[in-house]
Design goal:
alpha+beta, 2 domains, five-stranded antiparallel sheet, 12 strands, 31% helix, 165 residues, 37% strand
Length: 165
């Protein structure tokens, strides 16, 4: 009785199972990577172009090494899918566009807020929080803030409440 045919068939079946497992794992890794890469895009879509946040800032501050005076500011996305925010003070006729990276916080913010880091009398806008949402828009650290942090100047975080308009 010749059993070599059965052994060969089992070996081919085992090889096919291993190939199938490798292909599945490779596909699962790609899908996971794609899902992780798409999270910031989905978070940016959360803040639709109609969402405008308005807040009163009682002190001068900086964004991207640009000085801005105290006053009422409106923050809105430049357009859908773009990671840039327009920061405007109509009363002072000041405006700029800043890049912002959407991130997910551990828990949702209770209200709209503007987040600042203050080093003595110098303040830097570092983030925007959305009400009842885990999405936070972080503005990259400017050169001036990096220099102050490098000098070990003590910093405090100041959160100013804002509203949607």
């Amino acid at each position: 009785m010749d059993l070599s045919g059965f052994v060969l068939q089992d070996a081919i079946s085992l090889a096919d199972d291993n190939n199938l497992r490798r292909c599945f794992v490779k596909y699962a890794k790609r899908m996971l990577g794609l899902a992780l890469l798409s999270l910031p895009v989905l978070a940016a879509a959360q803040m639709a172009s109609s969402t405008r946040i308005v807040g009163q800032v009682p002190f001068p501050f900086m964004v991207d090494n640009k000085h801005l005076p105290a006053g009422q500011y409106t923050v809105a996305p430049v357009s859908d899918g773009v990671r840039a925010l327009a920061i405007l003070n109509v009363g002072a006729k000041v405006g700029l566009i800043a890049l912002a990276m959407p991130t997910l916080a551990k828990k949702a913010s209770a209200s709209y807020a503007l987040v600042f880091h203050k080093y003595g009398d110098t303040a830097f806008l570092t983030g925007i929080r959305l009400a009842e949402d885990r999405t936070t828009y972080e503005i990259p650290e400017s050169r001036a803030e990096a220099e102050l942090r490098a000098q070990n100047v003590p910093a405090t975080e100041t959160i100013l409440l804002a509203s949607a308009k």
